[in-house]
Queue: 2 jobs
Job 1
Amino acid sequence: MSPKASNDTSIDALKDLLIKSEKEQIQKIQTRLDDPMIRATELSSFLPEAISLSILNNNKIPQVIAPIINETIKASVRDNPKIMADAIFPALGPGIRKAISSIIMGMVQSLNQVLNHSFSIQGMKWRFEAFRTGKQFGEVVLLHTLVYKVEQIFLIHRESGIVLDHVVAKDTIIQDPDLVSGMLTAIQDFVNDSFQMTTQDELETLRIGSDTSVWIEKGEHACIAAVIRGTPPLDLRTQYKKLIEEIHIKSGASLENFDGDPFHFAIFREQLNQGLQSKEKKQEKKTSPLIWCIGIVLLSAIGFWAVHYYQTQKVWHSYIDRLEAHPGLIILSAQKKDGHHKIVGLKDPLEIDPATLIKSTDKDRIKLISHWRPFYSLEPDFVLQRASNILNPPPTTKLTLVDTLIIAQGEASDNWINSFLKSAKTIAGIEDIDIKKLRNIDKQNLKTSLKQLSNLKLYFKNNSTQLIENQKNSLTQISELFNDIQKLKTLLNDPVKIIITGHTDSSGTEKQNLKLSHKRAQLILNNLIQEGIDPSFLSFYGIGTKTPLKKEIKVNDRKYNRAVSFKSSYTISTKGRKI
Amino acid sequence: MIKKKVCLLGAFAVGKTSLVQQYVHSIFSDKYHTTVGVNIEKTQIQIQDTAVDIILWDLHGEDEFQHVRLSYLKGSSGCIYVVDGTRKMTLATALNLKQIAENTIGEIPFLIIINKIDLKDQWEIDQSTINEIRKKGIQIIETSAKTGDRVEYAFEILTKKMLEK
């Protein structure tokens, strides 16, 4: 043994002595590193943790593995497509089934609606709309028939059932959302437990009656539950799906570590509110023909009533106008009461009957009740008319009124004038009288008769009390005049007296002549008394040849003095009035 | 406003529903207990400045015919296990339920309520048993659903625990 060899051996021995255990460990490590099987076994034990750590730290694993997986899948599908088909079938099947069932449900729904509306008038309208707008008929039908209202939306923490947010449509009656959400979650759990649902087959829709449904759109930690009345469009569900996905993307960590405070989820309030959609159907109620008939009848009745009312009002107002045009009528009140037209007023007795102012055809239109009380109108026409009626002036007398002064003009009998003077002032509206231009016809006649009488003579035969021939007419005329005068005198209470004077011619003695003239006058007086003339206003004298009627120039003139003449005389004027 | 889900668990007829009936708000009828196995109720507890809405999941009583649906326990922030002091077995049921719940959803704030304190003379559960359990750090509150005694207090205690967690 060389010294070197001896040294090596001793070093080895020393090494063994010093680092024997380490050496053995190094040997083991060497063996582990060299043996691929051992390394693979070891790697397999911590590979999952290593991948987890890598994902947590820098997440490079997916980037690294993705191309490998892609290539692997490609190779696998290329080599044996069946393996991949078998592998994805369990996942693909439910997905496809779900998609197809959704589409079929929608189609069935559409088909029902199309069938319902194809042959109706509404359907025709929609066909025209489809033609006009270029849309498909089914689309137009859906557009018009999907009537729905999303009443409430719950955003629910799936695990606890606690409401994270809750929005409600206007005018919706709600129960406590926490309780509803809790029970909804419990029911989902109940259904899942009871029917051993897989995660893909969870409860999606609750249907209540034929009208209301609850759509549940789930995310991993939260779900949206929408309470909907009516038939919503299917794309609404897509909208909810997108929303729940967005909520998870934005607040996934808050959801996962939910501590009971829903405050963090208020940021989705606006989007939840947008989900409260509704579509209202136009209220196109068919109006029953009966309603139309009733409407027409009602309208006709209203129209008839309006025309009748208008005409009635017209008749009424025109009647009032006519009444007001009459000064002898004063309307105190005119009103419509209890279906009657009632007038209360004053009526001058001289005024015409107010009832004659309304046409007989209009009488039926207004049920008129009139109460007219009498009164004296002081209108000049009425005062004058009233005066005429009361005083009854003769046709020769004209009455006029100036304010309260009544003027009588023309001629009137003494009687009437007396009556006028006595009565006129008692008439309402007359205070003064004027008769300056009124002649008394009786006095006029008396004057005329007296004048006529004074012009008449009765002629006698010579030296005789016998009237000459042809005097009978004069005698009759004189007798009539006396009669007239006597009547007028009595009427007028006139004090006139008539003197009958007897005359003779100048032949014979004065004494004889006086006697003869006296006889002649007496003869006529007697004759008049016989005719019924009152002798009290008569007197007679015989004056012989005194005061001859004609100067006797010729013999023939004598016959004019063989006569009786008449003249009137006044002794006392009782009334002081002269004619 | 904080909202917390609290499950009310216990054996059949321990008085879970009676316990909360006096001051909870409910819109569902009791028939949900038998049909769905749960009734949801709500009450509000004020802890200092914080108002907490307690959403109570009053689960159907555990008995030999019907078991608690474990899925209802998900997402709970707290649990109340209700025991009938006059029936010793109900304590065992409660402890068993506690174990099941913890296995299902993990440990969460809880407390045990022993009800029917108004019938304490008839109790089958003695004080030593109660003390034993308390030694394990489990909070037990004795209440009376009949008189309402300490019911609200129990809820306040649990709520504080939940908020502290």
Note: Confidence is low (pLDDT under 50) at residues 572-579 of chain A.
Job 2
Amino acid sequence: METMVRMGELAISDTPGDVLVSLGLGSCIGLALVDKRAGVAGLAHIVLPATTGTPKPEAMNKFADHAVPALVDGMVERGASRMFLQASLVGGASMFAGTASKTLEVGSRNAVAVREQIARRRVPVVAEAVGGSRGRTVRVDVTSGTVSVREAGGTEEVLAA
Amino acid sequence: MSIEYTDVQLDALRELANIGSGKASTALSMLLGRAVDISVPKAHALSFADAVEAAGDHEQEVTGIVLGIVGDLDGVVLLLITPEDADTVCEILGVEPGSEYAPSALGEVANIVGSSYINALAEMTGMAIEPTPPATATDMLGAIVESVLAGQAHAGDVALMLDSELAVEGSDCSIAFMLVPSEDGVGELLERLGLG
């Protein structure tokens, strides 16, 4: 079954056959974590680098500083081993390159924040499809632990197997 | 911080959008030399995820042109047009579709349409606001809309989208139009309307 992981959402699965999907990532980052031995995979659709103000609990996973630890802890709770976690980063594009508005340049700041958070949890990043100016769709296959990416106008390619 | 809007507030915002898109359609009509119809604007207060969903098929290819708003109101105007309709607009303007001039022609259309919308807002609310130059991207709809929303995001998880559609008569071509104020921007708009 395909589970859509929408903006600011996070999903973890250990059900064989499940596929976690974020469609059309722009400046957002899709952070995929897999533990192939345990057959657990997770995906967070991260919107912003750091929490601002006092968001409602259900909005917390928008932010890298909350979503990354929540995803790592959630994976471990579902039976993944922290030692065998592998991370892939997808997205963080700058869709409107050259725009005067700095608020639209969130993509690269998101990538920096997610890398920092993931390094703090000592999870290795095995693959990245980050930056540039194209939107991307990411799929995480729970059974195989395969992460695949499709860029706008392109075909689906395996990013991490 | 949780933000909810009342029906009265949404109605008032919809009315703003209505007048704004009326001005925008006049500008587009003069530019293209064709009659332009506007749809009844919709005001959505949605979670981010639902807002992207409401825009349409995530992976559909569209051209998005974004104009920032600076001054008393923080926000953006986003115009969305399918590649086919973008070609039609170029043809009407006498620019070869897909040529190197096409993106700047579309940017200019968005600039004129978006600016008249923003000017109408300024007149109605008494706010000093100006558009920033347009930026154009042709990509997945979801990627374009989420990037625009992310740029406006603050603590809340509610995106306010005021959208309408401009349809060019006799050409089967339309431009969707969205005003996405930042959360602070919505409060400011409502306050100016006496509904804060």
Note: Chain B touches chain A through 38 residues (CB under 8 Å).
